[in-house]
Design brief:
cytoplasm, Rossmann fold, transferase, RNA binding, Archaeosine Trna-guanine Transglycosylase, Chain: A, domain 4, globular, RNA-binding, S-adenosyl-L-methionine, 3 domains
């Protein structure tokens, strides 16, 4: 998008907002848009990534796990992307989830979560514990959200597609941490996406502001006393940013602004100090607004109407002898994997208490979930697999949670690991859904966890000298870049 093509009304507002910085802002449209990846810290930390990375990008200064990439890097076509090692994300959009102080065991809500760029970071911070409740009112976008959360190997999730007003009525003061990355006029995306400019002309800040006001109030209703909420947008309009926050503070005396420390290149809020603004002429990013708020009080003072508790058991899990053995082995591997992630291994018996079966599908529910009666949800917990005539077939989401190092050498034919080098051509063949031929010495039968450099990709079924591919069709290798709706 060239600056000459920007709406005159928008330019007038930006000149008034930026003053003497306005010419520098216009010049930023002559520069390419910034691109980045954010590491899945449940898989790999920045130090290990520096040794493994096939890209040469510099760190993103405002996150501990973000890196710049170029178009030439093609991160959406690297096996590490399919192993869930990183999420492709615009660098300034990394700030909101980085700033929300999520801790293991928290109940976390991402209210406008699709396609999952921020949810995946919030879930990684939970380290396999607590609850990540990710919602998007659009069902089609919520499906992309679910895929990205499963690709990241996040076990304790609930993905819904519901009106936030209904969620607020169902779960008052339930969550410890909440992110509201609100739909907005998208002024921070003009350099990257011309469709956002057309949307601004037909809608603009005045159209989005009432929506944002409702969302931030509904989120405040769901935040427990002592809890922290981040409100963010990818737009520059004060009406959508500082004014939305100020209105909430004026109406809700129990809410207080938590000042965000500035870092080099960042700007303070306009008329509301303590907020954070990112501009493309000040740093390598497209632009974002972030405000952090806290509800006064202490944990444990939640409204009596909030609903938490255990869900129903569901159907009986009926398996034959071999399938029961496989299921037992998988539960032990899962317990070890969760223990490596959280630092405390759950017992297999504790996991069994959280199993839920319905219509042949078996799930591991989060440690604690609210009453979801009447809520439209796509997934609650981790899909372990499906039972079919006494057999058990493990799922793709389960594969992404497992740590290959937790697969015992003595698992016999029930579960084995095939670990391929990133440069092995069979990695791409597997991701395309093709049958995999084994090298001599790799003869295998039973269920095979296919990995790349020690990171899981998915399942295959061993058949002697070849593997029957069980990789999900909807996840397969794309000849072009990753689909836009997935990032």
């Amino acid at each position: 998008m060239r600056r000459e093509e920007l709406p005159s009304a928008f330019l007038a507002e930006m000149e008034k907002l930026l003053g003497e910085e306005y010419p520098a802002y216009l010049e930023s449209f002559e520069q390419p848009a910034a691109s980045g990846i954010r590491l899945n810290t449940g898989r790999v930390d920045a130090e290990e990534w520096s040794r493994r990375s096939p890209f040469s990008g510099e760190p993103v200064p405002w996150t501990e796990n973000g890196f710049y990439v170029s178009e030439a890097d093609r991160p959406a076509r690297d096996p590490y992307y399919y192993a869930g090692l990183y999420y492709i994300q615009e660098p300034s959009a990394m700030a909101p989830a980085a700033l929300l102080p999520v801790e293991p065991g928290d109940r976390v809500l991402d209210l406008c979560a699709a396609p999952g760029g921020k949810s995946t970071e919030l879930g990684a911070k939970l380290r396999g514990t607590g609850l990540l409740f990710a919602n998007d009112i659009s069902n089609s976008r919520a499906k992309a959200l679910l895929k990205n959360l499963e690709l990241f190997g996040l076990p304790g999730i609930c993905v819904s597609s519901e009106d936030p007003e209904k969620l607020a009525a169902r779960m008052p003061e339930y969550f410890d941490k909440i992110l509201v990355d609100a739909p907005c006029s998208g002024e921070g995306m003009f350099r990257r996406d011309e469709s956002m400019v057309r949307d601004w002309v037909t809608k603009g800040p005045a159209w989005y502001a009432p929506i944002q006001s409702r969302l931030i109030r509904q989120a405040a209703d769901m935040l427990r006393p002592g809890g922290v909420m981040v409100y963010s947008t990818c737009t520059f309009s004060p009406r959508e940013d500082e004014e939305t926050v100020r209105e909430l503070l004026e109406e809700r005396p129990e809410m207080e602004l938590v000042p965000i420390p500035l870092f080099p290149g960042a700007a303070d809020g306009f008329g509301l100090s303590g907020c954070l603004r990112l501009f493309p002429h000040r740093l390598r990013g497209e632009g974002h607004f972030v405000a952090m708020l806290r509800k006064k009080g202490e944990k444990g003072e939640s409204a009596p109407g909030n609903r938490g508790g255990k869900s129903k058991r569901g159907d009986r899990i009926a398996l034959d002898g071999e399938a029961e053995k496989l299921f037992d082995v998988l539960l032990e591997i899962l317990a070890c994997s969760l223990g490596r992630l959280s630092g405390g291994k759950p017992s297999v018996s504790a996991l069994r208490e959280r199993l839920y079966a319905r219509d042949g599908a078996v799930y591991l529910l989060p440690e604690e979930i609210p009453d979801l009666g009447g809520i439209r949800f796509l997934r609650t917990g981790l899909l372990l697999g499906e039972t079919k005539k006494g057999r058990f077939e493990p799922s793709q989401p389960l594969a992404m949670v497992l740590d290959p190092k937790a697969v015992p050498a003595g698992a016999g034919s029930a579960v084995r690991v095939l670990d391929l080098d990133r440069g092995d051509q069979r990695v791409i063949r597997y991701l395309k859904g093709e049958t995999i031929l084994l090298d001599s010495g790799e003869n295998a039968r039973g269920w095979i966890l296919v990995c790349v450099d020690g990171f899981p990709l998915g399942w295959a079924r061993g058949n002697g000298g070849s593997l029957k591919n069980k990789y999900y069709p909807g996840w397969r290798w794309q000849q072009s870049a990753v689909r836009k709706e997935d990032i």
